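Hey team,

Filing this mostly as a record. A colleague (T.K.) asked me to run one chain through the structure pipeline before their review meeting, and I want the input and output archived in the tracker in case anyone asks later how it was produced. No errors, nothing strange. Just documentation.

Input sequence:
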Amino acid sequence: MEEFFQNKHSKKQVDLSSSLASTGENLAHLLFLYAPYVHPKFILKRKDLNLKEVLSSKDKLGSSPLLRVAQIDSKVVLHRILASKVARDSKLLDLNAKDASGRNVLHHVLKNQDTQAFRDLLDHASSSSSSNSLAADLSWCSAPDPKSGRTPLQTLLSEASAGRAGLIRDLLTHSPSEVGAAASTAAAAFGELSSKEEGEGEERKKSLLHILVEGGQQDLFDLALQRRDMVLDANTKLFSQLIKKYFSPAR
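Output structure:
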């Protein structure tokens, strides 16, 4: 398979931009889904293809190649695609794209608790922020899940199981793989590290610190306090009560 993609004759004589009439799957769909042992770089580095078009094309199920990989939880393939320097630098991946259910790649990554893919997406968020991209490019970071209505950050905080606690730690301690990228931009893109809830007939906003204290997540709370972009609202009565309730030493 790899020899086929590298062969100079196949590049000229085989139409690699076509798709299957029955399913709408194109070359990227087929390679990523049915030949996971072939590295995605054999497509991502092709200069004879309109890669943005190939990678954003949706099949008859309404999913792009990247979305399909995330849906079936193909961790190795997903990591290889997201970690591709070519894909990140050339902005080949449309992370705002949604499948027929209204979910984007990040929604599926959180559902599957895919730690590595989550870190890769944090790198993409930092890369986009540091390169002065349009704000809309990062809307995938805070897009609500169509079923629960929660943003990715709210999902992480409301379901802080062992796996999700690890993802929150990654969010708080993320260091971009690219030199010069701002570490705080990735976390900020997830909604300014805040969560909204309905309470007593009016909307109120609870900070990440409030929610970590309520959940008894002292190790994550300590990490959050180390962030320069964390807003301290410890003077509120609610916050003080929570600190005393959850973190006071037993007597």
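Quick notes for T.K.: Confidence is low (pLDDT under 50) at residues 132-136, 178-183, 194-204. The two ends are 67 Å apart (CA to CA).
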